[in-house]
Amino acid sequence: MPAATLLVPFALPPAPMAPDLIRALQAPALAALLSRPAAQAYHPFEADSRVLPHEAWVAHALGLAGAPTAADAGAPVAPAVMAGHGMAPQAGHWFLVHPVAIHVGSHLQMSDPRQLQLAEEESRTLFEAVLPLFTDDGHELVYADAHNWFLRADAWAGLDTASPDAAYGDNLHAWMPRGDMARAFRRLQNEVQMLWFDHPLNAARQARGQPPVNSFWLWGGADATRRPAANSLATAAAPDWLARLAAPGRRAATPAQLRAGDVLVAGPALASGLAEDWGLWLEAMARLEQDWFAPLLAAQRAGSVGEVELVLTHRDGWLQTRTSKMAQYRFWRPVNLSALLT
Question: pTM here?
Answer without folding.
Answer: 0.95
